[in-house]
C-alpha cells in the first residue's frame, strides 16, 4: 500500500521543542521551516526536504493525535504519555538525547509528612495536574486518598490547605523549597519518548524505521562512557 503524503510527526510546543527540532536536524531533516512556523503561530509545517510534516500541538495532545492516526509518530514526555493512557508503540526513550525532558514525578508535601506511614492515614487529599497517574499511585500504594485534578500552581494546594499532599513534576526542586514543601517519594522518572501509531508502524515501515534507526545510533553513541 502506497501512502502519498509525508510522514506526520506530532511535536509539543513546550520546553522540548527547540531541542527536539535540533535533534531532527542532526538526523538529516531541515527543521528551520518548522521553527519558523512555531514563531508565526502556525500549527502545521513541512520540513525543508518535504519528507516530514510536523503537527504543532499542545504537549498533552500529542499522544491523542498519534493514537488516532492523525500523526504517524510523535515526541512526548513519559508523564504526558502515561497520563493520557494512549495506546501507542514506544520504540525509544530519548532522555539521553533530549536532556531538557529529564525530570521526575514526585509525591510532595509539608515537611511534617516526612517519615510518616501514609498507609496508616485514614484520609488524604492529593492535588495534581496528573490525576490518572496519581490515582494509579494511590491504588498501587494502598492509600486512602482523594485525588483532586488542578490545572496549575499545584504547590498552592498545599499552602492554602486545599490538599495534604501534591503529585507534580520536579527538575531542581526550587519551586518546592520556595513553597516550604519537600519531596516524599519518587513516582516516575520522566524523559522524552518516541511514540508511533500502531497502524502506521505496519503500513509505513520504510519511512519510520530509518528515523528509529538514526535515533538509535545517536543513543548508542550518547551512552558510550566517553561521549
From TrEMBL:
Belongs to the ATP phosphoribosyltransferase family. Short subfamily. NCBIfam families: hisG (TIGR00070). One of its GO terms (molecular function) is ATP binding. Keywords: Amino-acid biosynthesis, ATP-binding, Cytoplasm, Glycosyltransferase, Histidine biosynthesis, Nucleotide-binding, Transferase. It comes from the Bacteria. InterPro entries: ATP_PRibTrfase_cat, ATP_PRibTrfase_CS, ATP_PRibTrfase_HisG, ATP_PRibTrfase_HisG_short. Catalyzes the condensation of ATP and 5-phosphoribose 1-diphosphate to form N'-(5'-phosphoribosyl)-ATP (PR-ATP). Has a crucial role in the pathway because the rate of histidine biosynthesis seems to be controlled primarily by regulation of HisG enzymatic activity. One of its GO terms (cellular component) is cytoplasm. The keyword Cytoplasm applies. Pathway: Amino-acid biosynthesis; L-histidine biosynthesis; L-histidine from 5-phospho-alpha-D-ribose 1-diphosphate: step 1/9. It is found in: Cytoplasm. Residues 58-216 form the ATP phosphoribosyltransferase catalytic domain. One of its GO terms (biological process) is L-histidine biosynthetic process. The gene is hisG. It catalyses: 1-(5-phospho-beta-D-ribosyl)-ATP + diphosphate = 5-phospho-alpha-D-ribose 1-diphosphate + ATP. Signal peptide: none annotated. Its EC number is 2.4.2.17. The keyword Ribonucleoprotein does not apply. This is ATP phosphoribosyltransferase.
Amino acid at each position: 500500500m502506497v501512502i502519498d503524503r509525508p510522514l506526520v510527526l506530532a511535536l509539543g510546543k513546550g520546553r522540548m521543542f527547540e531541542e527536539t527540532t535540533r535533534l531532527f536536524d542532526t538526523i538529516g531533516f531541515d527543521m528551520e521551516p518548522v521553527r519558523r512556523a512555531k514563531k508565526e503561530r502556525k500549527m502545521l509545517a513541512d520540513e525543508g526536504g518535504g519528507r516530514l510534516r510536523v503537527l504543532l500541538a499542545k504537549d498533552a495532545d500529542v499522544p491523542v493525535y498519534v493514537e488516532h492516526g492523525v500523526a504517524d509518530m510523535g515526541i512526548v514526555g513519559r508523564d504526558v504519555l502515561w497520563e493520557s493512557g494512549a495506546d501507542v508503540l514506544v520504540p525509544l526513550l530519548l532522555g539521553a538525547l533530549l536532556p531538557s525532558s529529564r525530570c521526575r514525578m514526585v509525591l510532595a508535601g509539608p515537611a511534617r509528612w516526612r517519615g510518616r506511614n501514609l498507609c496508616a492515614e485514614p484520609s488524604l487529599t492529593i492535588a495534581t495536574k496528573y490525576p490518572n497517574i496519581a490515582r494509579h499511585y494511590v491504588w498501587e500504594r494502598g492509600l486512602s486518598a482523594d485525588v483532586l485534578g488542578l490545572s496549575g500552581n499545584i504547590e498552592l494546594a498545599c499552602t492554602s490547605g486545599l490538599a495534604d499532599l501534591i503529585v507534580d513534576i520536579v527538575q531542581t526542586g526550587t519551586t518546592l523549597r520556595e513553597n516550604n514543601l519537600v519531596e516524599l517519594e519518587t513516582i516516575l522518572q520522566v524523559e522524552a519518548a518516541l511514540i508511533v501509531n500502531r497502524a502506521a508502524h505496519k503500513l509505513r515501515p520504510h519511512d519510520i524505521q530509518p528515523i528509529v534507526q538514526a535515533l538509535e545510533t545517536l543513543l548508542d553513541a550518547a551512552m558510550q562512557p566517553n561521549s
